[in-house]
Amino acid sequence: MIAHYLQRLVEIFPFFLKGLWMTVAVSGLSLILSTIFGFLLGTLRAGNSRILSGVIGIYVSFIRGTPFVVQIFIVFFIFPEWGIQLDAFPAAIISLSVLGTAFLCEIVAGGIKAVEKGQWEAAASSGLGPIQQLRLVILPQAMQTILPPLVGQYVLLIKDSSVVSVIGVIELTRVGWMTVVRIPEGLMVFTLVGILYFSISYPLIRLSNNLERRMAVEQVRL
């Protein structure tokens, strides 16, 4: 019986590859948007405006303090009541991007705040404007603190993409559930699902570990 299920699993493996591609597409687009908006909001949150920082903090606290599945339902089911109709794919990308932005925002803000104030003063005394100070002096130093957790958060976002299956996106987890209906050997099916998730997450895990070791060596040298 196991051999029969294994043969069936091999036959429908291309279906899993399509699900894997959808996972990569949703995760990849969401990571790009999360990175852009995460750096933007993180920079503003680390700025001198207490009001702006507080408003961003409320957004971050709400997103980090509510289940991701609730956020997806709000975007996919509640937004249409307000006249914003979205298909499952863009709804998944928006939801995952909003989630990722909140976490990346805190990582970026923490990295910028970790840079000594003297670096800002030195950059200002050199005649650089605020944006130039940030781009040329502060961010290059902050990236040493930002990069390792940033890559680690990317891995978490890829895994969180499995939740978008609840609104009908045919990604990897959804494919697993659809396959279990045909092949009632759940352990075998979801072991394959886990392996495929691992195949796209492991390179980022290795990158994160390498960055942490490299940053640790550089700090020791300093």
Question: Secondary-structure map with pairings?
Answer:
Elements: H1 2-11, H2 13-45, H3 50-64, H4 68-78, H5 88-113, H6 117-125, H7 130-160, H8 172-182, H9 186-221
Overall shape: it is: elongated
CATH architecture classification: Orthogonal Bundle
Give the class from helix and strand content and strand pairing. Answer: mainly alpha
What's the helix count? 9
Q: Report the average pLDDT across residues.
A: 86
Structure description:
With 222 residues, the protein is mainly α. It has a single domain, classed as Orthogonal Bundle (MetI-like fold). Helices cover 82% and strands 0% of the residues. It has nine helices and no strands. The protein has helices at residues 2-11, 13-45, 50-64, 68-78, 88-113, 117-125, 130-160, 172-182, 186-221. The chain starts with a helix and ends with a helix. The model has no long low-confidence stretch (mean pLDDT 86).
Q: How would you sum up this structure in a few lines?
A:
By secondary structure, this protein is an all-alpha fold.
State the main characteristics.
MetI-like fold; mainly alpha; 222 residues; 82% helix
